[in-house]
Amino acid sequence: MDAPVPFSRRVAVLGATGSIGSSALDVIARHSDQLRATVLAAGSNVPALVALCRSHRPDHAVIADPARYAELRDALADAGLSAIQAHAGEAALDALVAGQACDTVVAAIVGAAGLSSTLAAARAGKRLLLANKESLVLAGALVIAAAQASGADIVPIDSEHNAIFQCLGSRQAGAQVRRIILTASGGPFRGRSRASLETVTVAQAVAHPKWSMGPKISVDSATLMNKGLELIEAAHLFDVGRERLDVLVHPQSLVHSLVDFIDGSTLAQLGLPDMRTALSVGLGWPQRLESGVGGLDLLAHGRLDFEAPDMEAFPCLRLAWEALAAGGAAPAVLNAANESAVSAFLQGRIGFLAIPALVEDALAAHAHAPAETLEALLAADGLARRFSQDWIHRTTGHAVSA
Ligand code: NDP
């Protein structure tokens, strides 16, 4: 490897109060000579955002909920942090992401709410550390085209896509790649029958056996929708069709993904399940940075197992394969219906098996909506969310906010 070259990056951490945000800030703090968090953004949790401002001293703090602007400004002043500029709302965040405040963006807002800032970073030519998979599922072709036009470097942060990026040395799969194999832990319900999942609780669904993550992605991992979203994400990131994508369940979560080449070589990336590795790759690439994650002791772990995913027990994975094949608005509808269903499940309004049932009905109703432009995709997203609210209302007799 070449000798390290000095570099410095000013980093906007979007979703700073979340699981990925906290891992990113941990890595940034380890490299204060090269990395500085200049923008911290959160959704609505002002106390958590101000606590992060106290430790990381950014130039800007942004709260997405405009109604909380005064609360943020006053809390920063009370904490003696008036030098940090307070902002609120999506437009303010997009402007900061696109402007001079940062050269690198960690896109770690959860859900389709992350699309606008992800697109702003891609259009502005920033180094984009992309954790927000939902923005690629909703509008992947537009995000990738924007990055290509501006010269933005996208480094995938999802551990599987980061593994593939490391195996390829880039985002170009090209003709020399025979197959990309995404690994899946199988989630907390691996090995269970579909019928036995009828009564699982929220606490059981978010208790992931290997990864510590936010609630939405934890439920997605339990339904295997997470792997489905990742298939669509991989198709966009590496420009491969579904015929070159595959999924293998690997319960130890040590092999993060594999790439088969046409010469018979298979490369894999291994490591402990800790997102700081992927974030270090994104922050340092092409250099390697110390991340705080220890090395892998394969003797201590003993074995690596692989098995086929059970699409009968976990229909969300099949639905995502179908949405990828259908193209058009289908992935946007899949994503929006899933976000609504997971939110209702987390609120205790619908059962676990209602998640795939709702997504399947939403796809049947709206997968053929127009999808040529961003406006059309956002309209399909909106249609699917309204459909989902009605569906949940009919099923439970309660109105549910998406
Ligand atoms: P968390 O739920 O832990 O954090 C979500 C973050 O998004 C919080 O900072 C939250 O702010 C913020 N947020 C929520 N809604 C909005 C909004 N409308 N506008 C702006 N910010 C908002 O999620 P994770 O960190 O687990 O996941 C983040 C993303 O990264 C997801 O897309 C997920 O799929 C992806 N990812 C996560 C992995 C993980 O290990 N956690 C692994 C791979 C990908 P607030 O605290 O104020 O609500």
Helix-strand makeup class: alpha/beta
Q: Spans of 5+ residues with little confidence (pLDDT < 50)?
A: none
Total count of strands: 11
Q: Which ions and ligands are bound to the chains?
A: NADPH dihydro-nicotinamide-adenine-dinucleotide phosphate
Tell me, rounded to a whole number, the average pLDDT: 96
What is Rg?
Answer: 21 Å
Number of H- or I-type helical stretches: 16
Series of secondary-structure elements, N-terminal to C-terminal = EHEHEHEHEHEHEHEHHHEEEHHHHHH
Q: Characterize the overall form.
A: globular
Taking the alpha carbons of the first and last residues, their distance comes to 49 Å
How is the biggest beta sheet arranged? 7 strands, parallel
How much of the sequence lies in strands comes to 5-15%
Helix content: 40-55%
Read across the widest sheet, the strand sequence of neighbours is 4-3-2-1-5-6-7
